[in-house]
Amino acid sequence: SSPLFLQKGACVWVPDPEAVWVSAQLLQDFKPGDGLLLLKLGDVQHPVSVPSDLPPLGNPDILEGENDLTSLSFLHEPAVLHNLRVRFLDYNSIYTYCGIVLVAINPYEQLPIYGEEVVDAYSGQDMADMEPHIFSVAEEAYRTMIREKKNQSIIISGESGSGKTVSAKFTMRYFAVVGGASQQTSVEERVLATNPIMEAIGNAKTTRNDNSSRFGKYIEIGFGHQGNIIGANMRTYLLEKSRVVFQAQEERNYHIFYQLCASCDLPEMKGLKLDAAEQFRYTNQGGRTWIPGTEDALELERVRNAFTVLGKGSWPHGGAVSHLSRAGLCVSLQGEDLSLLLFSKLLGVERAQMAHWLCHRRLAVAGETLVKPMSGQQASEARDALAKHVYGQLFSWTVGQLNAALRAQRGAPVSFIGVLDIYGFETFDRNSFEQFCINYANEKLQQQFNLHVFQLEQEEYVREGLPWSRIEFSDNQPCIALIEGPLGLLDLLDEECRMPKGSDESWARKLYDQHLNHHPSPHFSKPRMSSTAFIVSHFADTVRTRPIRMPGGALSLSGLNSSIPNGSLRSGKRAHREHKLTVGFQKSPQRTFRVLLQIVKVLTLYTPHSDFEERVTLNFIRTVQRLLKERADGQPRQLLLDVHRFFPVTFSYQPPPLLRADQLTIPDSLKVSFLRRV
Ligand SMILES: Nc1ncnc2c1ncn2[C@@H]1O[C@H](COP(=O)(O)OP(=O)(O)OP(=O)(O)O)[C@@H](O)[C@H]1O
Fold first, then answer.
1. Are both 41 and 76 inside the same structural domain?
2. According to a count of CB atoms within 10 Å of the terminal CB, is the N or C end of the chain lower?
3. Is the pLDDT of residue 576 over 50?
């Protein structure tokens, strides 16, 4: 808590638009009721009015660079950031403790701190005696498991690209060394061999991370009586299946597709009749299909070697992955299409049947079964749904195969250490069902953390009669109840999926009725401008979600839909509304950027009707892209003016009922060339 009086010379932190927080010094004593602080910021005197709270106070110099944040006298955002920064820049240390939590900063360079000699140095040592390190956390889990014969878990969380997977791999490597056996292709080697395989089928290039895990993973490493690894088991969560059929600009599909395409000339791959990744819609939507510094063909080699270590025979033997790649790459609805032929052949289904059921659906009406042709839009969605399903099944199948290879051979493990590597909390401009699930998972993890760190700890103090004044912590149960409780978001979603004519609108209406009108929840609200979106106030942030459903009740995932505002540009009325919004956003530059980006994204998905239209569209996209790049120097309003100057029709551009690129009437060749040129 803040002291009541501050002496001249005391340090405080003040918010800064550039540096986030800057340190300032008090130029005169301050006492409650003064209402004004006189600060020295750099060389400038700065009177700051104090409405209610004092600014966060600076810590004494002696605590600068402490290796445990809990030893700071004042623990608040600026103190945490400053301490981490000092440790990173001045002490070259990427790790800092915060009690039992290890905070890691991604150095984005190889540091010489993970060698065997470092493992040896941490092995057998107490956490409190050692500098913070991921090995120290692993050692603590290992020792506690052995000493107390209790299973342990390490939870690794953080935003995309923060280093979760790398950290998980280091903990696994640590266990492999300290719990290792001597024989070749031992189980710890097999545990490590799962990494390249899982990365090939579950990781992809995103704009934030060239090797981003698009699934959550929990691996339980089982130990025997002697503390040696005897088996492992892996569970996966929330694979981002939408990526199989759609990739945003600069992103890629799962690595395995590109690895197979890059190896298509190998004799054993010939039967798959693959081609360059640029040739397939499911692999070329992000633009560039290669990652600088990565050789996809070599990566496939690593994957195949890993399969060998796991005793799963040669790669083509794990042939279903190849099938799926083909499924992902080739599903197409043109009847005579070679891709459809290959896809059907590889999956072992009859081509004519496949073509028929991709374009028709069965309806049960009054006890009778009718077969109805689907629209082009529906059929392409059905094709995408099939590709996602095949990939999802194959992913689960592969995990099952790996688990079989990791299963303990001699007796059951006596204890285990679990390592959870899962997406951190996510909020984007447009959040879909995936973000909703990820944030729900994080809400549950946070609850677990609260329970562990605050509640159980305090209960133990009280039980042992230690003098202790209870610390209040914010309990996130109400937010969890909103999601998973009776008549909660998931309950109502289930109900909506069972309705024959369920829709986003009607689901959202039910949510508003229940959580705004009948039983208002402080964690739920409705955005002003939408009747399909809702806002959940999570512990970390408020997130606006707009799920869009696919036919058949399956919720669509972010990808494709996130690029199409409301999925509705073909509706003139809605297009007009988007247009009005755009103009309305002029007062809010940040939103304007987002809308411009959105327009660019949408336009890249559209097929122009004429050369002229294509030229106009491309011109617009290039102009906006260039200006968006230039906006880095923070001239948002200028950007808006520039857009008008360079491209005066921007905001009066009323798209005629344009066709989406994936509509069937448009030949693939045109789509590919258009997308490539964009
Ligand atoms: N400790 C580290 N030392 C060196 N480089 C690191 C370290 N941690 C992460 N990196 C670098 O950062 C990149 C991203 O890390 P990683 O893939 O582990 O992130 P992530 O949090 O798992 O991201 P995502 O959620 O997207 O999967 C790595 O490929 C690596 O180059």
1. no
2. N
3. no
Kindly state whether residue 537 falls inside one of the protein's structural domains.
Answer: yes
552 is in an annotated binding site: no
Q: Given pLDDT bands bounded at 50, 70 and 90, which one contains residue 598?
A: low
Nearest CA to ligand 1 atom 14: 161
For residues 558 and 573, state if they share a domain: no
* Catalytic center residues: 160-161, 165, 209, 212-213, 424, 426
For residue 538, the CA-to-ligand 1 centroid distance in Å is 26
Question: Is the CB–ligand 1 distance for residue 158 below 6 Å?
Answer: yes
Domain of residue 43 covers: 11-15+23-52
Higher pLDDT, 612 or 655: 612
pTM of the model: 0.73
For residue 675, report the distance from its CA to the centre of ligand 1, in Å: 30
ipTM rounded to 2 decimals: 0.99
Q: CA 375 to CA 360: how far, in whole Å?
A: 9
Same domain, 296 and 377: yes
Is the same domain home to 373 and 467? no
Whether residue 426 lies inside any domain: the answer is no
Asked whether residue 110 falls in the same domain as residue 150, the answer is yes
CB atoms within 10 A of CB 559: 22
Least confident piece of the model among 122-126, 256-260, 541-545, 602-606: 602-606
d(CA 26, CA 7): 7
- How far does the centroid of ligand 1 lie from the alpha carbon of residue 204, in Å? 13
Pocket test for ligand 1, best of 108, 109, 217 (most atoms within 8 A of CB): 108
C-alpha span between 57 and 52 (Å, rounded): 15
Nearest CA to ligand 1 atom 30: 108
Distance of CA 310 to the CA centre of its chain: 29
Whole-number Å distance between alpha carbons of 146 and 415: 8
Q: Per the structure block, which two tokens stand in for 113?
A: 């701190």
| Domain shared by 38 and 150, yes or no | no
As given in the structure block, the two tokens for residue 602 are 């949408």
Q: Return the percentage of the chain with pLDDT > 70, whole number.
A: 75
